[in-house]
TrEMBL record:
Keyword Oxidoreductase: no
Recorded GO CC terms: L-type voltage-gated calcium channel complex
Bilayer topology term: Multi-pass membrane protein
Phylogenetic placement of the source organism: Eukaryota, Metazoa, Chordata, Craniata, Vertebrata
Location of the protein in the cell: Membrane
Protein name per the record: Voltage-dependent calcium channel gamma-6 subunit
One Pfam family matching this protein: Claudin_2
Keywords: Membrane, Transmembrane, Transmembrane helix
InterPro entries tied to this protein: PMP22/EMP/MP20/Claudin
Record-linked Gene3D superfamilies: 1.20.140.150
Biological process according to GO: regulation of calcium ion transmembrane transport via high voltage-gated calcium channel
Domain of life: Eukaryota
Sequence intervals crossing the membrane: 51-73, 150-174, 186-211, 223-251
Length: 265
């Protein structure tokens, strides 16, 4: 009788352990199914993202360099307009304008207008009052259109904001090791490039409005190196955004260039 009792207890214990093992296995399977697998980027993809980010950083640097200068446009009087040994010209950007007095003897004899601005001479620079008192600036009896100048400056500042947001997205993507933030970054950089180009176009319209405000003094105008710098920056930013879009695709065309490992053992 005692032997039958111990055999029965042993069988019940085995059944309990087996049941607990099956329950634990099912729980583990359910827990494993409940967790969402986050795709991680490979080392090669991370390198390509850094390369595309380097391209975008070049655009950001050129944009900041161009926006901080006052060489967006040069307005030059005829070099013999005053009838003396000096002539005047002006150059300005989004925030500040300068009037320069140059020596006629230093100007190229084949050049009919005063300039360029790189020649030595006296300079008088002042910040525009568009953003403080709202006054228009007067340059050689010509009046600026503050609405166009304000629009160009605001678009430039918005582009800088989008560049900062795109850089934050790329930084988070590289730190977390996930490509999820590539699409928001591409949107930010493409939009910033478009805003930069639109800012240049509106600024050019403001220059034309300035020239048409008065015709008493003939002026020769030309867009300076800052506009070329900012325009190139806009194109580079758009290119960087397109590269991020390509890298965010599930099957990037760049992956075709990678060597495929043989899966057979």
């Amino acid at each position: 009788m005692w032997s039958n009792y111990f055999v029965q207890q042993d069988e019940e214990g085995r059944i309990g352990v087996a049941g607990a093992g099956q329950a634990g296995g099912l729980g583990g399977m359910k827990g494993g199914r409940g967790q969402r697998r986050i795709p991680k980027m490979s080392d090669s993809q991370e390198g390509k993202i850094k390369l595309a980010f380097f391209v975008a950083i070049i655009g950001v640097t050129l944009t900041v360099l161009g926006m901080g200068t006052e060489f967006w446009v040069e307005l030059a009087q005829p070099k013999n307009f005053s009838g003396n040994q000096t002539c005047q010209m002006a150059h300005y950007g989004l925030w500040k304008g300068c009037i320069r007095t140059l020596w006629v003897a230093d100007i190229d004899p084949e050049r009919t207008s005063c300039g360029p601005a790189e020649l030595p001479g006296e300079s008088n620079c002042t910040y525009f009052k568009f953003f403080t008192s709202g006054e228009n600036a007067v340059i050689f009896k010509k009046t600026t259109n503050k609405n166009l100048n304000l629009a160009a400056a605001i678009l430039a500042l918005l582009s800088l904001t989008m560049m900062a947001m795109g850089s934050i997205c790329i930084g988070m993507s590289l730190s977390k090791g996930v490509p999820f933030f590539l699409k928001p970054a591409s949107f930010c950089f493409i939009l910033s490039g478009l805003l930069v180009l639109l800012s240049v176009l509106i600024f050019h319209q403001s220059v034309l409005a300035l020239l048409s405000s008065d015709h008493s003094i003939p002026l020769h105008h030309e867009l300076s190196w800052s506009v070329a710098c900012v325009g190139s920056a806009g194109a580079i930013l758009i290119l960087g955004g397109v590269l991020f879009i390509i890298l965010s695709l599930p099957f990037s065309p760049w992956q075709k260039c990678l060597p495929h490992k043989n899966s057979t053992t």
